[in-house]
Amino acid sequence: MRKNVRVWVAAFLYYSGLVALFRWLMRRGGPRLIILNYHRSKGDLRQHLLYLRRHYRMLHLEEALEELYTGQRNPQQKLDRRTPLVLTFDDGYHDNYTYAFKFANELQVPITIFLIPGYIDSGDFFWWGEGVRLVKYAGVEQVTLDGRVYQLGQTDDRAALSKVIDSRLRFSHSIAERETFLQMIRQLLAVPAANGAISYEGEADLPMSWAEAMKMQESGWVSFGGHTMHHPVLSYLTDPAEVRAEISSCREVMEQRLGRPIRTFAYPIGRTEHIGSDAIDAVKEAGYQWAVTTMRGVATPASDPYRIERVLGEASRHWLLMAAETSGLWHKISPLWKSFIKDDE
Question: Of 9, 90, 172, 299, which has the fewest CB atoms closer than 10 Å, so is most exposed?
Fold first, then answer.
């Protein structure tokens, strides 16, 4: 019900002309760059792209950042007064290849994807989905972890165990600690070994391959940035040397595999508490020119080039919600929306 109400509100904002007004106000406010932060691609993405292509000047991330910070625009776009916008996708999910790449080609829309080389090399499932996946495919009916017994036939126990697994993985102090725990929990739950995407239903939780990344790059519609080697939460790593290695090795491997300079970086999870000062210093030392966060905001020439804000994009959301979000209007009314939800509860 609440989802429908959100869409109805977004439809009113759009068809009343308020979204168009806020787009105009943004253009009048000086140089701005909207960077949308997507992850998966399946959903309403094609409709998103149709709307964005019509109302914004869509660029690759590097081109857009060069323009923002130098003030120099591609001569072919000098007469286009629309606000520049970039679509970014974090993690390099396989469905970025099957959906986002297909739509980028069809509609001739540039996109930028942040890759995790360690997962591309291994072809393994991303760690942040393992809590749910491992419990779902457990080969036992009962398990004891950290002194608590979980009955996997009970919905509440399954949810609680998934949450515990996710927390242990998220707060790991090293990649080795995280991988050791993952191996232990897989054995404890007697989960059968995965055999690629065929073994389980979660193809979207798998990374793309290097061959797919190369095909995307060769199209000219897809560019890439770094997202660490193994996607740790950087501020939780206790060894600064591991922080530096995760960031610098990512760039080195990507440049070797893709044959092009990698100049942009996205912090895993990406809020202030997940980054840490060591990571920002490491990004600079590794030779990246810009780094994006997941903190909400629209970039300006005054934005810190190593703490650039983005706007959340979700392919599963109705395009009308995305239209209100990119205009800045949805953010303005969000306190009222949250108040409505609280009162409704």
Answer: 9
